[in-house]
Amino acid sequence: MPCVIALAKDKEEVFVPGCSEPVNARYDVDSLAMRLLRRVRDEAHRHALSRHRMSRSIQMFKSKP
Description:
It is built from one helix and two strands. By secondary structure, the protein is mainly alpha-helical. It has a two-stranded antiparallel ribbon with strand order 1-2. β1 and β2 (14-15) form a beta hairpin.
């Protein structure tokens, strides 16, 4: 079963399923773990945006039947 977490962008808080409180109180904001999580999040967003832009661009050149 895959592990799932959420990283809130505003306050850089880490949430896990079943916990209403953030778990990042144990980590320093500039720790290696937090930097890795931010980098993974930013890369996922970059990839999603580029895929969305590509699909939107392709749809602009399709004619309606």
